[in-house]
Amino acid sequence: MTVEYDKTTSITNLRDIGGYTAAQGRLKTGVFFRSGELCSLTSADATFLEKDLNLKKIYDFRRPAEIETRPDVVLQNVAYENISIISSPGQANPSLKNMVITDDIENYMLSVYSELVLSHSAQDGYHKFLNELLHTPQPIIFHCFAGKDRTGFAAALLLKIAGVGTDDIYADYLKTNEARKAENAQILQQFATKLSDTKLKALAVSLNVKAEYLQYAFKLIREKFGNFDNYLKGGLAPTSSFGTKKISRLS
What we know:
Layout: E1 3-4, E2 15-16, E3 21-22, E4 25-26, E5 32-35, H1 43-52, E6 57-60, H2 64-69, E7 79-82, H3 105-118, H4 120-135, E8 140-143, H5 150-161, H6 166-179, H7 181-190, H8 197-206, H9 211-225, H10 228-236, H11 244-248
Parallel strand pairs: 5-8, 6-7, 6-8
Antiparallel strand pairs: 1-2, 2-5, 3-4
């Protein structure tokens, strides 16, 4: 079971993805954390990340345009790295300027996951992220804006590499919907008078995740690369050596 911190901190969608049964035991807790953006931390939040979680590095998957208006709070003794995973504007974004709302929202969301699997920026970004984790295991947190798509797929990759079962991978992925319920309601209220009913419904869809989105991503991996190992070794890292053993040493 993952360790969640909803009652300890105000950071949205924060959880430890350790604790699941993996290929060689259980994935350690206290190493891999995922969350939404870290731009509005209280002093208590900052202390929690630095002291309680003993955080060593933050990976920010957002685009530079997102970071420019909502930069992460700087934490002492915690390294920071921006790895821009996708170049297209996001659905769930607090600014209308950076938001794409389409009536065909379901197909749009599938196109986002297609980009997460097939785009050069995503392949390069996840390659760099996973390589660093394999070679420098330490407490880290990774996030995007909502912590649902770019972050959700990264968490799914980590768990799958570790040999975590499919049911647990999807369970972690879908926890975002409950974790973001209050924040999503606030965003919808913010745009209630600015968008048509159709657009508002599309925004509501885009603020959540569905199992079908992650299923589509793994389906693309099978279709384009044959299997998950080929995706890791060829799609993400032609010259690297991803595999379950290195991640599972943290079990």
